[in-house]
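Please decode residue identities from the backbone states below.
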């Protein structure tokens, strides 16, 4: 995988540095570090093996309108554009919500599912759209590029006041699991 660096533990200084690079005063952004059970717990709500495989990917983005999933992508669904991944594959970020390249019915996930797994998400405020971005320091550059693509999409379509972006670090899952790339 492009830019994959296995790490043994989460370095809080590296985490804070990444967060400071991602912060954007024009957007509502919240940052969380998940524990190793997060991926397993959220995958309980998926109905298909394919979706559960998507969740094991290092980077994913979910966009919810109210409680319904409107957009999903993961690193395994985008081709490389050396030296990075092409997050705007098939011009998906040229509209808002972005275009899907997967059947959302196969994912069967709601924002309520995330709030059960991460109760901290219950106090996000009054936003029509919630982005959840699973990222990690093992794929720092590619994670940053995904987050940047999403931030640019929100700004391009002037959705800053109606979207909250939640960034969930998933390093602990990869540190403690046997998932390999």
């Amino acid at each position: 995988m492009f830019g994959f660096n296995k790490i043994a533990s989460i370095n809080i200084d590296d985490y804070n540095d990444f967060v400071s690079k991602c912060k954007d005063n024009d957007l509502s952004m919240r940052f969380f570090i998940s524990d190793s059970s997060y991926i397993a717990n959220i995958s309980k709500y998926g109905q298909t093996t394919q979706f559960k495989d998507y969740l094991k990917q290092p980077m994913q983005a979910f966009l919810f309108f109210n409680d319904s999933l409107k957009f999903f992508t993961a690193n395994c669904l985008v081709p490389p554009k050396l030296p990075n991944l092409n997050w705007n594959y098939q011009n998906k970020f040229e509209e808002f919500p972005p275009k899907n390249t997967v059947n959302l019915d196969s994912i069967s996930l709601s924002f309520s599912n995330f709030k059960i797994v991460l109760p901290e998400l219950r106090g996000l405020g009054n936003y029509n759209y919630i982005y959840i971005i699973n990222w990690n320091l093992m794929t720092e550059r590619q994670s940053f590029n995904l987050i940047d693509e999403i931030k640019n999409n929100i700004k391009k379509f002037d959705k800053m006041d109606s979207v909250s972006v939640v960034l969930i670090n998933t390093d602990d899952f990869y540190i403690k699991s046997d998932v390999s790339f």
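Observation: The longest strand covers residues 68-74.
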